[in-house]
Amino acid sequence: MSVAELKEKHAAATATVNALRERLKQRRQLLLDTDVATYAKGLGRSPVNFGATDLVCCRTLQGHTGKVYALDWTPEKNWIVSASQDGRLIVWNALTSQKTHAIKLHCPWVMTCAFAPNGQSVACGGLDSACSVFNLGSQSDRDGNIPVSRILSGHKGYVSCCQYVPDQETRLITGSGDQTCVLWDVTTGQRISIFGGEFPSGHTADVLSLSISSTSPNMFVSGSCDSTIRLWDLRIASRAGRTYHGHDGDVNAVRFFPDGLRFGSGSDDGTCRLFDMRTGHQLQVYARQPDKNDDEFPTVTSVAFSISGRLMFAGYSNGDCYVWDTLVAEVVQNLGTLQNSHEARISCVGLSGDGSALCTGSYDKNLKANMCGAENPCTGGTMITANENFEVPRRTLRVGPIAKYTMIKAATNESFEVPRRTFRAGPIAKTM
Fold this sequence. Notes:
By secondary structure, the protein is mainly beta. It has 2 helices and 30 strands. It has one domain: Methylamine Dehydrogenase, Chain H (7 Propeller), CATH 2.130.10. InterPro entries: G-protein_beta_1-5 (IPR016346), WD40/YVTN_repeat-like_dom_sf (IPR015943), WD40_G-protein_beta-like (IPR001632), WD40_PAC1 (IPR020472), WD40_repeat_CS (IPR019775), WD40_repeat_dom_sf (IPR036322), WD40_rpt (IPR001680).
């Protein structure tokens, strides 16, 4: 068979695949008779009241000399690790803005970083196609640098994302430009499972992001340059459990919803989307209105949910950080327009373990720690499945009355009421 014939067959096969995808998309649209926002607004629900003082920038973390690419919080403490183009990882005390560690990397082109669940070690990866693990308790050298405790090698492309499996300091998942995700044993440095690659259900382009479910640690999702998100089970590496379509560009960010049954995503197409892990359906699209002052349409670089899930924080390439009300799909605040905001692209966002603070990283070389105000501590209601208990976690801030919200059971469009309650917590132990 000649090269021309092969090209012709390839073009025909591509056209067939695209036609089938379009038919599938149309079929899904027929099955989706509504979305979360339409249903909520039909019940008279309105956006949460989120003012300029409800999230205040209390600390600007300065110290990097290059663009900040990634950040991560410790699960229970007030520590942040950040990765920058200056070739360093910096561990910060978010309460005081002091640096506890400044780790010089052998490869300056770092793209991701993550804290271990116990907060005793950090991992990072980048263009060296490896994931390096550092024990923060290790003895430093003369220059104050911490030696690498483990190098996880095996990827054939850059390492774009990494995350520890919840409550397992010895298990780490990485995503790579080689179109695969890998589960590692950090203790031995060996690969346990490879997700994608030679398997036909894997990604067909670079993996850019991943997120592990907090309620089902064996499940994780990955976002890719192939415009799809895939669901994986750590116990079954041979195939993706489900593929989610909807985006028209690279999926730069994925993040599980607090209930572990849904997840959000952000893409180069400028939209955020909410998907249901169980049904495979898209629940909502969060699209910003074009700004006539924008030279080009901003892309979504990162997403994070409030501890209740009612609010979604989305970072954009133009320096905006939108606070979305996930229930009615409306922007309730733009942190990029507030005083002391970032001056360049927002590359990463992350919420502290207790949900009381938001940290953003930017190409302006800085990170900003934002504290939730006393009148609205980022609870903003919740979206949970029917018949589950509704609890507001203990906080160090005084919390006012929680308004009644009708919640949505996404799979069945059932609704139920969350009773009005008032919670009081103790005094603030430390302020930022």
